[in-house]
């Protein structure tokens, strides 16, 4: 049995695959593969372990022989899951193991933005430290402020816990369904989307990218927020409208923004958001710790192994593949 892997993954996942007797073929080049290269490699394989590669209907139809597709991510917005399901291809992902690291990234962006840390670091490099000015470089405090969570799932909950523990922040949230455990544990309060926008001092985004969440944070949304609010997005860049975010910051509709995800990625180096004191941007590193990436590679490998054995894969995005088969 053979698996094609679209990037070099951590040793832990590779080892598991090798121990299971699975032959590995990896894409080692430092460029993304083309659709033709992806199809050619998959036609020689029984499974695909995909690191962020877009998997559209054309690809899936060309490679309908694949016994399993294991994603090296929890997000699956880059995959045509409906087509995969109709072709009976199970899709696996890596939930849970990356929640803490991604929440840490959201927390880092919140704190860095509140104190203009990235901008001030750059100003030292430019020789602009100057003299100690009691009225300059002022940030805002987070203690006792209100954290609004859009999407109180695994990562959102972890972020809420950190903010409550570190700064005693009050937690409000908007989710499709109520999270009663979080309401009890964190005294979190469910609000409508509009109320969330109006009441948050820091608004942090943790939903998947779906047709319902795409472009959700637009000019109208930013207009409802407090002029002192900080917007954080570590979910997907397409959930906010980047031009509207820039306009809202320039117009003082909100105070600051911290982004681990942009639209498009990578963000162009001359983007005006990168010049703003109250904006912090990271290059999609939410889950990028040694420990978390190793754990993700292990879950992805477990999905490949189960799929190749014909067993139900443990971390499954499209359970319908098994219900429709039986
Ligand atoms: N920056 C990074 O490196 C990373 C980004 N992510 C992103 O974070 C997302 C969330 O991950 P998890 O917390 O593990 O997922 P999750 O499924 O545990 O949580 C998402 C929550 O959003 C809610 N939700 C979905 N659509 C909604 C809507 N329209 N309105 C209100 N609530 C809605 C769901 O009910 C769920 O509670 C992923 O889908 C991925 O896109 C995940 C890991 C790393
Ligand atoms: O898992 C995801 O969805 C990511 O964005 C990267 O870990």
UniProtKB/TrEMBL annotation:
Which keywords does the record carry? Oxidoreductase
- Keyword flag Transferase: no
The protein's organism comes out as: Pedobacter gandavensis
Pfam families in the record: 2-Hacid_dh, 2-Hacid_dh_C
Asked if the keyword Oxidoreductase belongs to this entry, the reply reads yes
- Domain D-isomer specific 2-hydroxyacid dehydrogenase NAD-binding, first and last residues per copy: 108-286
For this entry, the protein name equals D-glycerate dehydrogenase
UniProt lists the family membership as follows:
Belongs to the D-isomer specific 2-hydroxyacid dehydrogenase family.
Query: Which residues are in the D-isomer specific 2-hydroxyacid dehydrogenase catalytic domain?
Result: 3-318
Domain of life of the native organism? Bacteria
